[in-house]
Amino acid sequence: MRYLHTMVRVRNLDESLAFWRDLLGLEVVRRDDYPNGRFSLVFLAAPENRESVEADKAAGRRESPTLELTWNWDAEDYGTARNFGHLAFEVDDIYAVCARLMAAGVVVNRPPRDGHMAFVRSPDLISVELLQKGDRLAPAEPWASMPNTGVW
After folding, report:
1. Does 6 share its domain with 56?
2. Any catalytic annotation for residue 90?
3. Contact at 8 Å (CB) between 28 and 40?
4. Where would you tag: which of 9, 40, 107, 111 has the fewest CB atoms within 10 A of its CB?
5. What's the predicted TM-score (pTM) here?
6. What's the structural domain count of the chain?
7. Same domain, residue pair 67 and 89
8. Average pLDDT over residues 143-152
9. 82-103 pLDDT, tens per residue?
10. What pLDDT band is residue 81 in, cutting at 50, 70 and 90?
């Protein structure tokens, strides 16, 4: 058995790509549009996983590990998505990533007070855990005293 991908339904593909691709840095590795079914599938991978995704493609296997964004062209209400859990990504500098996300208007729901872990939510309310690569960073402001906001 091999892990392939995680699928999340998105309300607005442009907003979702702005979050996952432009802000978090994932790369689109495949897009399939299905006009008859009125939906699109967009697969993204972390830059450090690009090599394994390309190797899988060359071998005729499904890409892995990837995030599949499923966009149904007709509006649907997906609720708050709290039953999903979260996706986790390792980052080189958790403070820099959180600062970049905040500057773009993303709420850091659980700030990286410990220099190790933070939570944000995508435009589709998917919880995203950010984990510091390697050792924890030393506590720093504004993160150390920043309270939690909302849910994640």
Report:
1. yes
2. no
3. no
4. 107
5. 0.83
6. 2
7. no
8. 94
9. 667 789 999 999 999 999 999 9
10. low
Domain that holds residue 133: 81-152
User: How is residue 93 written in tokens?
Assistant: 């500098």
Cα dist from 128 to 22, 62, 73, 85, whole Å: 15, 24, 24, 9
Query: What tokens appear for 152 in the block?
Result: 């994640």
Span 14-31, pLDDT tens digits:
999 999 999 999 999 999
Residues 50 and 1 in one domain: yes
User: For residues 54 and 147, which has the higher predicted lDDT (pLDDT)?
Assistant: 147
**Residue 74 to residues 45, 77, 125, 145: CA-CA distances in angstroms?**
26, 10, 18, 42
Catalytic one among 15, 48, 129, 141? Answer: 129
Give the Cβ contact number of residue 120 at 10 Å. Answer: 25
Looking at this protein, which amino acid is placed at residue 151?
Answer: V
